[in-house]
Amino acid sequence: MTSKYAQYQPIPIRQLPMNEATGELSPQEKHQLDLLLAAAPQPSGISIDALKLLQASRGWIGDDTLLALAEYTRLPLAALEGVATFYNLIFRRPVGKTVLHPCDGISCDLMGGAGLRRRLSLYLNLVAGETTADHKFTLIPLPCLGACDKAPVMIANQTLFERLNEQEIPALLETLAAEQGGDTL
């Protein structure tokens, strides 16, 4: 299935020159936003895609970035803020290189998901919503990930990890840390 936004090309994360103090949009970001705007019947239709585009290049959506997006697209700041705070995959504060999304739906919990989340919290010394001091991991549980038949599950680095158990967590986190390069946990 081809998306109507097929022209959109993700910009490598944290590769763009950007004025950190103002959140100013780069020429590459403006070009990608222009492509989204040209493909959308209504400018408001690009809200999620525009936020995802900027997050892909910046890692998260700060207030200055949100304001720059509102000014560039002429979309109401309040509307963009509403989308950014509602959509749980738009991060409004800095996150780690790997964001862990263990499912906290009932099917996963019946199959050991609560213990899995507890083990993640203990192993990383985090509570939900926090990031490790080395910025490697952020723990953000999500409601049902739509893989109930493979419970318990977790998404990390856009990969669905299925039928997890508590004993696998240390090795999985070591593997994810090694994929980031540098030291492991």
The residue-averaged pLDDT reads: 88
H/E order of the elements? HHHHEHHEEEH
Q: Separation of termini?
A: 39 Å
- Uncertain stretches of 5 or more adjacent residues: 1-21
Question: Which term fits the overall shape?
Answer: elongated
Number of helices: 7
Strand content: 5-15%
Oligomer: single chain
**Largest sheet: spatial strand order:** 2-1-3-4
Radius of gyration using CA atoms only: 18 Å
In total, the number of strands is 4
Strand count, sense and barrel status of the largest sheet are:
4 strands, mixed
Helical content stands at 40-55%
Q: Which structural class do you get from the secondary structure elements?
A: alpha+beta
Q: What descriptive keywords fit this protein?
A:
single chain, 185 residues, alpha+beta, 4-stranded mixed β-sheet, 40% helix, elongated, disordered N terminus
Give a written overview of the molecule.
There is one protein chain. By secondary structure, the chain is of the alpha+beta class. Helix content is 40%, strand content 8%. It is built from seven helices and four strands; from the N terminus they run H-H-H-H-E-H-H-E-E-E-H. The chain has helices at residues 27-39, 47-58, 63-73, 77-86, 106-110, 113-124, 169-179, and strands at 98-102, 137-139, 154-156, 159-161. Strands 2-1-3-4 form a four-stranded mixed β-sheet, with helices on one face. Strand 3 and strand 4 form a beta hairpin. It is elongated.
Topology diagram in text:
Elements lengths: L26 H13 L7 H12 L4 H11 L3 H10 L11 E5 L3 H5 L2 H12 L12 E3 L14 E3 L2 E3 L7 H11 L6
Parallel strand pairs: 1-2
Antiparallel strand pairs: 1-3, 3-4
Helix pairs in contact: 1-2
